[in-house]
């Protein structure tokens, strides 16, 4: 997985913005009049697709996200958005499960032996506390997996790496949207709907 | 690090591509990425791993929520999701 340089975040923001706007344009070409709810969905979905595509399918989470959007049969516009923005046909997300299972087995095996070793040393480390701690970490990991797209199929190192990348991308996404909202407020008289 | 002793574990190619050090390094990167937890001192690996995971989940949830709120706000502010190109051009320079 590529390491991201800090100064490329501005480039990422620009790329995200461009793609996001492109997605919105596709949406509006589908439907001229949208309800506020539909507009919100369009904005959100375009944003997700745009941010995922900035990773160029190099991360699991971005692939999973694109796949989720494009396999949602109810949403035709979404599929077009994905195809246009990513520039390629998005297949159903299937991770290289074999590779990742090997990943996780090694880590599990190592941690099991490590925990056995830990037990023999150290005064005052109760075995029970350790196993509780392990359970808690396991539960938290499960929650994390549910938050990161495609997380269910990752384990150990993969999950953490993907999380790092995902968080960084989310921050870009939120940052740009925040700027846009602030700018829109300044440029236009607020057009609040009565809805 | 207790991890050192566990090298014996994987009978298979101990490619150690995934070393405990790597895991710790990644966890600490996560640690740095999270604003709230930066000043917390690490007492033990296990405790901080749990805390880091918890803060990570909270952080991601917050980002999702903020995304949702911003989408709602934007859907009100932008009367159409059409080009708005003068706006878009201006915004591009603001970022």
Automatic annotation (TrEMBL), chain A:
Keywords associated with the record: Transcription, Transcription regulation
Ranges for domain IBH1-like N-terminal: 10-71
GO process annotations (BP): regulation of DNA-templated transcription
Superkingdom: Eukaryota
UniProt keyword annotation of Nucleotide-binding present: no
UniProt xrefs under Pfam families: IBH1_N (PF26576)
Protein name per its UniProtKB record: Transcription factor bHLH150
Organism: Sesamum indicum
GN (gene name): LOC105162875
TrEMBL record, chain B:
Signal peptide residues on this chain, from the entry's feature table: none
Cited InterPro entries: bHLH_dom (IPR011598), HLH_DNA-bd_sf (IPR036638), PRE (IPR044293)
Annotated keywords: Growth regulation, Nucleus, Transcription, Transcription regulation
SUPFAM superfamilies xrefs: HLH, helix-loop-helix DNA-binding domain (SSF47459)
Compartment(s) of residence: Nucleus
Example GO molecular function: protein dimerization activity
Gene3D superfamilies registered for this protein in UniProt: Helix-loop-helix DNA-binding domain
Taxonomy, superkingdom: Eukaryota
Any Gene Ontology CC annotation: nucleus
BHLH domain segment(s): 7-63
Keyword Nucleus among record annotations: yes
GO terms (BP aspect): regulation of DNA-templated transcription; regulation of growth
Protein name: Transcription factor PRE1-like
Protein species of origin: Sesamum indicum (Oriental sesame)
């Amino acid at each position: 997985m590529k390491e991201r340089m800090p100064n490329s975040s501005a480039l990422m923001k620009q790329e995200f913005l461009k793609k996001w706007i492109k997605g919105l344009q596709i949406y509006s070409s589908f439907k001229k009049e949208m309800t506020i709810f539909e507009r919100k969905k369009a904005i959100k979905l375009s944003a997700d697709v745009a941010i995922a595509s900035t990773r160029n399918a190099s991360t699991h989470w971005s692939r999973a996200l694109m796949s989720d959007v494009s396999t949602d049969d109810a949403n035709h516009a979404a599929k077009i958005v994905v195809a246009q923005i990513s520039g390629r046909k998005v297949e159903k997300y299937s991770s290289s499960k074999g590779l990742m299972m090997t990943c996780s087995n090694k880590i599990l095996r190592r941690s099991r032996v490590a925990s056995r070793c830990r037990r023999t040393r150290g005064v005052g480390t109760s075995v029970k506390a350790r196993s509780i701690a392990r359970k808690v970490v396991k539960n938290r990991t499960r929650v994390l997996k549910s938050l990161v797209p495609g997380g269910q199929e990752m384990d150990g190192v993969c999950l953490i790496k993907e999380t790092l990348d995902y968080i960084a991308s989310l921050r870009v996404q939120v940052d740009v949207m925040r700027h846009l909202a602030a700018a829109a407020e300044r440029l236009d008289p607020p057009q609040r709907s009565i809805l | 690090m207790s991890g050192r002793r566990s090298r014996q574990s994987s009978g298979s190619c101990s490619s150690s591509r995934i070393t405990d050090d790597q895991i710790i390094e990644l966890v600490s990167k996560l640690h740095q990425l999270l604003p709230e937890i930066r000043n917390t001192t690490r007492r033990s690996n296990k405790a901080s791993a749990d805390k880091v995971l918890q803060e990570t989940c909270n952080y991601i949830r917050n980002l999702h929520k903020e995304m949702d709120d911003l989408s709602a706000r934007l859907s009100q502010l932008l009367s159409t999701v059409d080009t708005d190109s003068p706006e878009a051009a201006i915004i591009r320079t603001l970022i």
